[in-house]
## 1
Amino acid sequence: MKILTANRLTDGEAVWFANDGTWAETLRNADVASDKEAEARLQALGDAAYANNEVVDVNLIDIDLVCGEIVPSRLRERIRAAGPTNRTDLGKQALPVDQAA
Amino acid sequence: MYRYDEFDHDFVKARVAEFSDQVDRRLAGEITEDQFKPLRLMNGVYLQLHAYMLRVAVPYGTLNSRQLRMLGHIARKYDKGYGHFTTRQNIQYNWPALSDIPAILEDLASVEMHAIQTSGNCIRNVTADHFAGAAADEVADPRPYAEILRQWSSVHPEFSYLPRKFKIAVTGAERDRAAIQTHDIGLHLKKNDKGELGFAVYVGGGQGRTPMIGKKINDFLPEKDLLSYCTAILRVYNLHGRRDNKYKARIKILVHETGAEEFARQVETEFAALKDGELKLPDEDIRAIERYFAPPALTPRPEGDEAVRLARLDSRGFSEWLDQNVITHRHADYAGVTISLKGIGEAPGDASDSQMEAIADLAEKYAFDEIRVSHEQNLILPHVARADLKAVYDGLVEIELATANSNLITDIIACPGLDYCALANARSIIVAQNISKRFASLERQRDIGELKLKISGCINACGHHHVGHIGILGVEKKGAELYQVTLGGSGDENTSVGEIVGRGFGPDEITDAIETVVETYLRIRSDRSETFLDAYRRVGQAPFKEALYAGEAKAA
């Protein structure tokens, strides 16, 4: 399974393509692609957003669903989704629970 | 220190205006990312895991209080309240918005700073001994030459698109505190038997995936020939350096593949054509730049000895700090102070906005307005009267920066690693923090003695692990972090590249492994005066290997 991630052009914020069609600041509601067709659809949306100067560094990343929650497979992407592990007061992990959960 | 003249001001101002316009056009969608990326990199703007990163140049690591205060201001206003001092004597901000970068650059320009040439395949910030102008063992201050190189290399049309990045370091003392032999060009300022100034020139040093120690290709280059000779080196490199393979594009590969002798011959040929031409440095020009770096008027402060003696009796903490973080100054009434940015369990090199401002205040009050950034990621007050040391110490205690660990095992160099960096394969900071906590006891650290531990989160080696007495390299193996340990590296006048001791260790094992290495050293050292590095050079890897892996061999 894969989700689509990028960094927002204006401020570099890590964002994920959500199932409501927006680029969300957390991956909680990311649009999950379960097959090649869905991956191609996400990639096309990413390419369009890149061409449209909304986001940069667009990537499809591997994830697992753990108890229904999206967990990126690679540590790198888990750190992107949370924030620096030595500064838990920074990044997404520092957001109030109702925003970040 | 160097002050911008009218040309410098106009040059930086024009660059800020140019890049601000480029940012505006990018944000308006008028230029694409592919077009913009090389432009932002020329201005120090990277994209990392969580956000953009801005790398600000600190030429040869020298700052005044006003500049350091501005760095604190930028951390507070545009970032998340801190900055990260790097192994190239620069500072990085981890969270700036692209839309704020023009304002940041304007603020920087107001204190004669910028982010030009902190990235890209050009000549990067020229680094120097952080105790330049203060150290007792110095022949002459290397910074005037670093400044001359800075002026020459700034937007140099011929050398702005080199095969790869290019780093120059300069030292003015026999004791190399600038790691010159691990640079593309390393310059050792010295005097010949006639008392004239010149340089031993090393070329082709570097770390990264192929560590190389620089080769000396000239034992004494007269100072007047500095730019002609460096131009000759760069020309040979620019012509023959590989552009087909990024991993073989640094000058170290060219020097290695060409052979130092043949490379030197090619440089001599170029040099012969350039020598005594327009690049020859007139003596009056060198002396004019030198005047910018004239040492502060160090008035006699003979009361220092007594003040230090009394303060020692009064405060054990001060006494320990004095022993560890204070070095001999060329003036007997003064000292050089290392402000450790390596508090126990802290991220190496990080300083908060308020700490930067407080250090600026201390420098203004007690240190002739001068601060240095060391390549070991500490800050330095190069000139402090011994009589004022206690006041400086008290000021540092207040901002929690009085850790007495300079050159000890917790004075760790670590790159940002996978917590921030898009290139990293493994985390570095947390490894440093865990080791720091394990060796928190100062008594234990002092018993271990001088030990340089350096950690990189990928093979690019920003954490200088190759030249750590103990080096740690983080890699990714089967999706997990793994840490390789190297032993016996050194980045001084006797540079050596550390050797991998054996299989790597997981994140939960690496602190124990380092402790095993250290305990082994304590067991085998001939006496307390034999440092870790000396002991390693005497006995080699065997006892360390045995201690780390013997159990496994038996089990297998």
## 2
Amino acid sequence: MLSIRNLHAGIEEKKILKGLNLEINAGEVHAIMGPNGSGKSTLASVLAGREHYEVSEGSVEFLGKNLLELSPEARAGEGLFLAFQYPIEIAGLTTTNFIKTAVNEIRKYRGEQPLDAVQFLKMMKEKMALMNIDQSLLSRSLNEGFSGGEKKRNEIFQMAMLQPKLAILDETDSGLDIDAIRIVANGVNKLRNKDNAVLLVTHYQRLLDYIVPDFVHVLYNGQIVKSGPKELALELEERGYDFIKNEVNAAQEA
Amino acid sequence: MNTIENIKERFQELQSANGNKLKSLEQNAFDAFNKMGIPTARHEEWKYTRIGNVFNKELHFKPTSTITPQELDQMRLPGHENANEIVFVNGIFSTSLSNVRSKELTVKSLKEASAGEFSEIVSKNLGNSNRYSKDGIHALNSAFAHEGVFIHISNGKIAEHPVYIYHITDARETNVLAQPRNLVYVSERAEIEFAETHFTLGVSESFTNEVLEIVVEKDANVSYYKIQNDKEQSSQVCTTHFRQVGKSYIHAVTISLNGGMVRNNLNITLEAEHAEAHLYGLYFLQGNSHVDNHTVVDHVKANCLSNELYKGIVSDNATAVFNGKIFVQPHAQKTNAYQSNKNILLSEGASVNTKPQLEIFADDVKCSHGCTVGQLDEEGLFYLRSRGISEDTARSLLVHAFAIDILEHVKPAILRSYVDKLIFERLEFETS
């Protein structure tokens, strides 16, 4: 589904990703972990098409298309979704209006008819129940005055509405207490199926207790330096990132 | 002949008429006009609005233009079926096109009103705006005051029908100078809603120099909506002057979308304790429009509240000016006065000059002001686009979100949907 080869990218003059490789297939959950500054959020930003990030080398293929050539909205149309680490507050735009526009713009991109008000409401009710979200929250301005938990729940609610093929969750657990993590993780788990994939970007292991990954990758200094099964995350939690750093540095010296 | 000569000729013509009680007021104003002339950029209040430019072409008084009811129909605001409609054509009140439905409403020429039962109200209030608008443009309007209209809203009655005021400029034949003048008296306990708008027929240049003075008595409640969406060759200076002489409530919303050079002077004087005034404005400009909002809120008495929020969206080569003055006079203790002006520039060529001005002479008051000029939030734009929303739609959604807290203050549903429609057209939203 997603194939990242030798990706070099950075912001302005600063190189952050330095030859990253990653393959994700349908039905899989991948976790990317790494210390601060290793390039986790840069990867998420580059994949979603955030401005000011420049790719100097390498390729990213998503469902057979060159992802890097697509606008952010086309990427969403193709089935990519980024759950933001810091969801943006937009005063004056209700979540309902926002999500309705998004759903129908994506349908338009795919050559489908827009949903009418009845179909849209039905779909929204279903997904609200899934995410345990209240109508009153959706009638409010997008993320404005939402608690940290509400913002992240709203992200996953959007994911449920847009039904992406690949969802990238950027530090979705940051700033959440255990109860909130559980609600968010539950939502993600209910949305998982054999046709879609999830890429979790996280600093801590604790989210992986609730969304169990098939693969764990360690990102350090702009590269994936170690990959393994879910147990790798536990090892990182226990030993910290230093042992990875030491391993990498030792290998470089040798 | 040039415009100034046309003005002089017209003034002499009108002054020779008999029975004009406002003659000396007009003569004084005309002298003041001759003395001060058209304000230039050296005039502090006209620094950014070069109103002299509208006099570069020869403008004519066209008091006898005829507009047919069919022509008027295309220009009427929605909800007119239930409204009192007061129509000015080229600045002159048109009895035949106007329609007064409410018995609480009396409409007379100022010439007539200044001589009859309302003479005291007229002499006490006509020209009160001179205190704040000290320039030749304002004096020029006053020099022709007797041609204006007096509107009386009677005691304790609730006018269930809104009052729509239309200023129609017939510029089909020639360049037009129009000078509508209104004095409105809102009696105790009256509740009234005004909507005011301008339309130009034809493609010649025009300049409307309007003065509307509204006196608001105790326990009255006045809503006032001004919608400016005229042609680019139509310029305006509109002075709206509210005097709250009793404890009363004012809600004023000014929406400016199109026009040539537009200057709005909105004055509110809170002259009785516990009076309350709310002022909202939205200017959403494109092309070469220039819209200048000068507001004055004068807290004369203690324990009053004023709240002002103006927002601007400026694109293309349009320019906007906001100048908000708040005075708190020495005895106006316990004043609450708030002011905010926020702007978004959508293009390189767009510009805004914004200036809050607070002059506080009392010590026990709560006042705040602030202004911002920025661009559309890039992060917000990316957030929307990452959800599949095209860049153009995302921009429109963000601009609309910015404007909405002004639009929400257009309370009558029928006017709100009219304004929404104009905004959606501007944003190129598909209305679904």
